[in-house]
Amino acid sequence: MQDVKICVIGLGYVGLPLARLFSTRYKTIGFDMNQKRVDALMAGRDDTLEVSDELLQSAISNGFVCTSDIEKIRDCNFYVVAVPTPVDKNNNPDLTPLYGASTTVGKVIARGDIVVYESTVYPGVTEDECIPVVEKVSGLKFNEDFFAGYSPERINPGDKLHTVEKIKKVTSGSTPEIGKKINEIYASVIVAGTHLAPTIKVAEAAKVIENSQRDINIAFVNELSKIFNKLGIDTQDVLEAASTKWNFLPFKPGLVGGHCIGVDPYYLAQCAQRHGYNPEIILAGRRMNDGMGEHVANEVIKLMLKKGIQVLGSKVLIMGFTFKENCPDVRNTKVIDIYKALKEYNLDITIYDPWANPEIVRHEYGIEVMNGLPVEKFDTVILAVAHDQFRCINIYSLLNNEYIIFDVKGFLGRESVDGRL
User: What is the 3-state secondary structure (H, E, C) of 157-178?
Assistant: First the structure.
């Protein structure tokens, strides 16, 4: 397989770690239309923090190249598409990035080449939506002149233990022979091994149910937390007791955001609806989880009123804004829902997050985030994200004499907080 030359299209949280890994064995080029991103990577810096500067610089010194110049990827023969697949404001799948990446592939793909999609989609998107674009732009015939595959990404942002090469990879191809070839290429760098699915649609379906399953399970414990709160029972105590059974699933209540769990179920739901089935459980889980930010805000307001703390103009500190701990990714963060719900009460809100990029937050959400710990005192602190840095902070030093601490993540002990999920 020494003749394999790989191009990874899309150098975000998924594409860059994969491209870096491929570069350890194959000649690899990373392609991204964002020139600022390309420049930073070629300077040996990954702002997503998924690839360490040391690993990235080592890859570059060994021939790994990032570019925004389409001409530089024309001589590749194995293209991997790793672009985002978001939803629009109505939670409908937005395939615009995939169409754009497919157009790029169509401009450079040649006879005998292979294109593999990694972006999360519903079953049928690769063959019914993406491949026709490649065919139209290239003028080549699918499964005669060029071939395709699907290998769902399994990146866990911020996780330094389960890195890309340590997570088993599902692969598939548009023909049995191509499936074997794609599987062989991935297996040569994925130390955890691979699983060759029988068809592209099976691989697509496998990916989209992974996060839908987690979403539904988290929705269940979120609902439990609402029930137990009304009963005056601590949810964490209940889960701890129930977890003593060997087959109890250890899910915890919380905010469900990010670019995967909070998005993927909508892809599966729309696919089902297009085929005449209304997915009740999937959409019910989404409604539950999408409402948790507002629920947290309402619980905080109730606690403030019970303690006699003036709500109007009260100073509130939200600790954490990224969608998960120890990660700079703010895409689809549900902390924004807490912020918006509290703003309706005319509170004075400060957001502190040492991981979030204030410029990106300002651009995406139109609000300000501090990277440095504020020095003023607050009436309420909401621990929204469990960053490791927060363990070193004396939260009580940030509070006025009368205060509320609400712990979204179960970060502190029960006795240390006024409320938690």
Answer: CCCCCCCHHHCCEEECECCHHH
Distance, in Å, from the CA atom of 407 to the CA atom of 391, rounded to the nearest integer, reads 13
Catalytic residue among 7, 130, 260, 271: 260
CA distance 374 to 368: 13
130 classed as catalytic: no
User: H-type helices in 5-130, by residue range?
Assistant: 15-22, 35-42, 53-61, 96-108, 125
Q: Which H/E stretch holds residue 109?
A: none
Determine the Cα–Cα distance for residues 67 and 301; give it in Å rounded to an integer. Answer: 50
- What digits encode the pLDDT tens for the residues 13-48? 999 999 999 999 999 999 999 999 999 999 999 998
**Rounded distance, CA 188 to CA 309, Å?**
61
Q: What percent of the chain has pLDDT over 70?
A: 100
Quote the pTM value. Answer: 0.90
Please name the residues in contact with 83: beta carbons below 8 A apart, sequence gap of 6 or more: 9, 10, 12, 15, 97, 98, 100, 101, 119
Measured distance CA(100)–CA(88) in Å, rounded? 16
